[in-house]
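All the exercises in this workshop are built on plain-text protein records. A record pairs a protein's sequence with a compact description of its fold. Read left to right, the backbone structure tokens trace the chain's path through space. Once this layout is familiar, the rest of the handout is easier to follow. Here is such a record, shown just as it appears in the course material:
>
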Amino acid sequence: MALLIIFTILLIIIAFFLLSQFFNILFRGYAPFISTESEVIEKIINEIKIDSDPVFYELGCGKASFLRALGRKFPQAKLIGVEYSILPWLVAKIQTSMNKSKIKIIKENIFKINLADADYVYCYLNIAMMKKLEEKFKNECKPGAKIISYSFAMPNLKPEKVVPADGSSIYFYTL
């Protein structure tokens, strides 16, 4: 009986997650929950050259895999993940606290986060989101801030560098 109750609760949680993802993608234009592959993460990290204590944001951080890998290479960096969907946010919170990570995970709409202190912003979203974010980056990020986008370019900004990765591209911008 207890097993049936646990199974039912798990099914309800999964159904809620899938319905919220469907609603957010279809009606709000949000990107689906798809993690960046580890090979792509390594390629991005190898392209990053830092000389201080930078502030990194990952918008739509999911499980924060990118930030965790980044923290291993740049332990001095301040790492902030922003996730709106409850289940990936919860997984990221649990994983980062279990590892005693200094990554800060915020559950918030990415358009409500102020990026004024960002030195780097990473996103793997979709074309509609990148189009909306382009204006936010121009208005909020400081001059010299770096934007890194996997698979989806910003429509009106010319990337400083484009690196092929896993059948797609990584776009590097400097504001």
